[in-house]
Amino acid sequence: MVVLKFIRLIYKSTPQFKSKYIEILGCLISSNSLMVKLEVASIFPLITGNAHVVTQSIQTLVDVVCSSSDVNVKIIGIQRIKMICSRYPKVIKGSCISSLLRMLSIPSIRKDVLQLVMTSLAPRNAGEIVTALRKEIGKDDTGFVVEVLVALRKCKEVNEGVEIDDVMFEALTTPELAKEAIEYIEYRLQGEQRENTVARLIDFIEEVSDNKTLRSIIWMICEYCSHYDEVISMFKRLIVELPNKEETFIEKDIEEKETEEEKKDNGIIESKTVVLADGTYGSVIETFDKQTEKNKFFQKVGLRTMIEQMDSLVISSLAIGIAKICSKVTGKEGNCIRAKGIQILLELYYYV
């Protein structure tokens, strides 16, 4: 460490010994001491801007950060990496992104790492960054995941070839993440992918249960759709044709024909043969809860739930969207679509 401090003090005033300093640092960078490696990797890029040296220094600092259990060492390490990245941005963009992405798994510094990676974003490394960031979507830290979604959008802007649509549509089902996803989807609806985007929104509307997100999806579908009959039929299926929970339970009760005794405890008693501890056979009685199974059988979609709860904003958004579609269609096919639209509006009127 004394030698390293001495080199740091005199390397600027003694450039004639640069080759000697490089030789010494080249030997010390493979030291077993984390602190020695930290100092060597910090000094090495100051003495020479050789791409191999810069890359090796970054990799060494990343190794130190990942292997150390001391939070202070991790913070110092990421600060040193930032200094090197600001000094040699071209080298970092070209060959160090994969090393930097390794640090995303460290909770205490992953936000700093994400910012650092995004400052080195380029079309050639956007795919690699997206691949790593997709793995971070499942993290419990909602704030960090929102930043990841923002980063994914930037990657898409830099390189249109990267695929992030599935991640964004999945984010619609989480209220805290939906804002970023909606902004991205609105942008996609302005381009050539309009029809595909609307089709995916139709597929996902049944999985959304948040009021604000649902209103946005309804508006986007009704505003940008071109296959009007498909959209109207989808809303009709979810609102008019979907039976309510009580009706479904009654139908299942009739089909299963429960006995009077079973109805008292709402379960079925079954006998099962088992092997006992002494090797002999015995019987065990199990109770099967039918009501639980009926709840599993019927899962009400968020749109229908909102309507039955008389959510005025969702009902208004849907009514306006249906009316807008009905005003766009003409001819015989238009009459059929308007008839379905009137059915939907009458069903909505029932809940108002």
List keywords for this structure.
single chain; 352 residues; 2 strands; 5% strand
Task: Summarize the structure in words.
InterPro entries: ARM-like (IPR011989), ARM-type_fold (IPR016024), Clathrin/coatomer_adapt-like_N (IPR002553), COPB1 (IPR016460). This is Coatomer subunit beta putative. By secondary structure, this protein is mainly alpha-helical. The chain has a domain at 1-97. Helix content is 70%, strand content 5%. The chain has 21 helices and two strands. It has helices spanning 2-10, 18-28, 34-47, 51-67, 71-87, 89-95, 97-101, 110-119, 126-134, 142-158, 165-171, 175-189, 194-204, 211-224, 228-241, 245-256, 260-265, 290-297, 302-308, 312-328, 331-351; strands spanning 267-275, 281-289. A two-stranded antiparallel sheet has the order 1-2. Strand 1 (267-275) and strand 2 form a beta hairpin. The longest helix is centred in the last third of the chain and has 21 residues, at 331-351. It starts with a helix and ends with a helix.
